[in-house]
Amino acid sequence: MKIGTQLIIIFVIFIIALLIIAGSVISTNQHLDRLNKQQILANNIEIAAGELGYLSNDYLLYHESQQLDRWNSKYASFSADLSNLNVDTPEQQVLVDNMRANRQRLKNVFDDVVTTIESSNTEPKKTIDSGYIQVSWSRIAVQNRGIIFDASRLSQMLRDEEDRVRQTNTLFIAGVMGTFVLFLLANYLLVYRHTLKAIASLQTGTKIIGSGNLDYTIDVRGRNEISELARAFNQMTSHLKTVTASKAELEKEVIERKQAEEALKDAKMQAELYVDLMGHDINNLNQSAMGYLELALETLEQEGNLSNNDKDLLGKPLKALNSSSVLIDNVRKLQRLVSEGVKTSPVDLSGILQSIDLEAFQSDGRDITINIPAIPHYFVEASELLKDVFFNLISNAVKHSDEAKPLTVSVKVEPVTDNDLQYYQCSIEDNGPGIPDAVKGKLFHRFQRGATKAHGKGLGLYLVRMLIESYHGRVWVEDRVPGDYSQGARFVIQLPAAEK
Length: 500
Known about the structure:
- The protein is of the alpha+beta class.
- The protein has helices spanning about 5-60, 65-85, 90-120, 130-210, 225-240, 245-305, 310-340, 350-355, 385-400, 435-440, 460-470, and strands at about 345-350, 370, 380, 405-420, 420-430, 475-480, 485-495.
- A hairpin with a 2-residue loop joins strand 4 (about 405-420) and strand 5 (about 420-430).
């Protein structure tokens, strides 16, 4: 598949993911709006039931038609709100049915009271027994309290349902964004590795054919822009073999070779442009997704709806996104190191070590101690990327250690002499699980990892080796306790001292 086509597919998938998230947000907002309206009705019913109680008391005490009219008006409004309730769950429907039954009983009791009072008004000799008034008041109060209690419970149920809907939507959005970013990262690594291999094959073929070996054929794989260039290059080589060795034809061959070399340079620049564009875009998407996840964590925690399981569920994609950002940063540094090289100058080892942010290696629930002592101002031939060397080695020790055990990482620096040359030897040692002898020899190669369960692509130590060698230094790994690798590892760096 062509690189341009892959970029188009990634863009289309990103648009689909955005549409899914937008649809989820719209649907959730509509649901929340309906729940909010139902909650307002429940609150109004609770208030109206209380007011009906007060109006009933006034009528029982004073028997005035004004109180009766106000009671009937409030009851009509109360009945309308109760009729408009439309709930989702069986538990909520039971409460609504109870309130409607209590409403009818309340109406029956109050109508009976009204009939009795009006009949006593038309018959002056007939008086209303105080016991009857007390019993009627108690019956009305029972119905009112039942309605108020059920309305209050329904309101709380609706609030709880709103919280569940918000939490479910947040987790869904986080899941969609996490899945999309993991897809982008996998696609980026696949395209990057294939592109580098294709460019390396073209460079090798160009050198061999340029030396005069026209029988050599460049290995062509895939159907992208670089493979098409390789096919065209093989075709050109085949045509060159059939021409005669005349001066004009030789000059033509030289021109075609120059054109092929320019095309190769253009292809390399284009491939590097794709790598830069993809690295930049994916890193931006990572930062955006990390922002949404951090916002989701903060929002849920402030609302008190964040359980330990939810925190772990949102924390894992956040860590994965942070790891992918570190990986992309390492890849871009490697690309710059290979294409541009490194310009060295005197660098103060003391300043480099003191500038390392030790808080970046701390983790919740872990006992991690990092010892970086104060040292004299030792100057070495290096660059500003030397800080990345120490950061990667310390980070590597933390990442590949047992999370259930305390970890101590110690940094030491001492001057040494090797073949009459002055060096500064830096050691980074830990009491972690160590590195078996079978792994030590290949640990600094590209895409090689240790035997731990930690995730990674093996670029960190490869970047360390590339940088140290560009400084004309050495790096190796050994056992912290000689002969027993299980007692921890010691990474040793030798850097040439800067001339005074």
